[in-house]
């Protein structure tokens, strides 16, 4: 059984928000972290010395002055064939989407969709340690993200008794360069969705970074089902089902 790391981040909200029509979850699988972490650390050091000592990779902070560092981060992803990235995108304007049918609140829905994404991306011969971006648990909920993810069961098609997740935790994004990489890749996908929907104006710097990702993938559209299997793997799952996610 191969033990792997899974890093997760989210963007948008599941609650009704006219200016945020999309909710997204991103996950990245990696086995050996050392080499990629070394490259990300060097990139971060250069960004801190040239941009700001407090620099952090966040999609929403891409601008003309720092776009080169984000382009290099995208390039780095494709320098590592063993990486696996999947974006789970919910179009909240889709009339078939109604999370309240299955979940009592947005927190429970986010945990549920995180579990759905993990069950569909962790293979039968893998066990994962999940590290997710930190979010405050609502006082009204008794569910802890880490506990619920650690209890995740395998699909029936995976004929093994080994737990799918052997540990889980949440970290502030500034504590993990891997979560920051997920933030950027997921942000690029959702940005393309928002542009196509016409809910945001175009931004030259963000468009430049998006164009680099599209060139690597050989894709003209990031907002739809995408399954680029050439290593590294990069996929987009546009969630449109109206049946129960489990």
Topology (SSEs and partners):
Elements: E1 2-11, E2 22-30, H1 34-50, H2 67-78, E3 84-91, H3 106-119, E4 126-133, H4 145-150, E5 165-171, H5 177-197, H6 204-217, E6 226-228, E7 233-239
Parallel strand pairs: 1-4, 3-7, 4-5
Antiparallel strand pairs: 1-2, 2-3, 6-7
Helix pairs in contact: 1-2, 2-6, 5-6
Main traits of this protein?
single chain, alpha/beta, Nucleotidyltransferase, domain 5, seven-stranded mixed beta sheet, 6 helices
Question: Can you describe this structure?
Answer:
It is a single chain. The chain has helices spanning 34-50, 67-78, 106-119, 145-150, 177-197, 204-217, and strands at residues 2-11, 22-30, 84-91, 126-133, 165-171, 226-228, 233-239. By secondary structure, the chain is of the alpha/beta class. Residues 242-246 have low confidence and may be disordered. α2 (67-78) packs parallel to α6 (204-217) and α5 packs across α6 (204-217). It is built from six helices and seven strands. The chain is globular, with a radius of gyration of 18 Å. The two termini are 25 Å apart. Strands 5-4-1-2-3-7-6 form a seven-stranded mixed sheet, with helices on both faces. Helix content is 34%, strand content 21%. It has one domain: Nucleotidyltransferase, domain 5.
């Amino acid at each position: 059984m191969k033990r792997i790391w899974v890093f997760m981040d989210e963007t948008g909200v599941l609650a009704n928000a006219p200016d945020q029509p999309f909710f997204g979850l991103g996950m990245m699988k990696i086995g050996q972290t050392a080499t990629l972490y070394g490259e990300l650390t060097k990139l971060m050091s250069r960004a801190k010395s040239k941009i700001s000592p407090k620099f952090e990779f966040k999609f929403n902070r891409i601008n003309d002055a720092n776009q080169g560092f984000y382009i290099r981060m995208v390039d780095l992803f494709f320098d590592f064939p063993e990486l696996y990235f999947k974006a789970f995108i919910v179009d909240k304007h889709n009339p078939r989407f109604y999370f309240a049918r299955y979940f009592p609140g947005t927190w429970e829905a986010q945990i549920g969709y995180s579990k759905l994404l993990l069950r569909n991306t962790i293979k039968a011969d893998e066990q994962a340690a999940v590290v997710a971006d930190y979010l405050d648990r609502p006082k009204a909920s008794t569910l802890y993200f880490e506990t619920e993810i650690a209890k995740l069961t395998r699909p029936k098609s995976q004929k093994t008794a080994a737990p799918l997740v052997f540990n889980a935790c949440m970290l502030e994004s500034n504590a993990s360069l891997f979560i920051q990489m997920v933030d950027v890749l997921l942000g690029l996908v959702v940005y393309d969705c928002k542009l196509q929907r016409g809910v945001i104006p175009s931004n030259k710097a963000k468009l430049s970074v998006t164009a680099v990702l599209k060139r690597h993938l050989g894709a003209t559209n990031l907002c739809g089902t995408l399954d680029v299997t050439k290593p590294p793997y990069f996929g987009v799952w546009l969630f449109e089902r109206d049946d129960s996610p489990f």
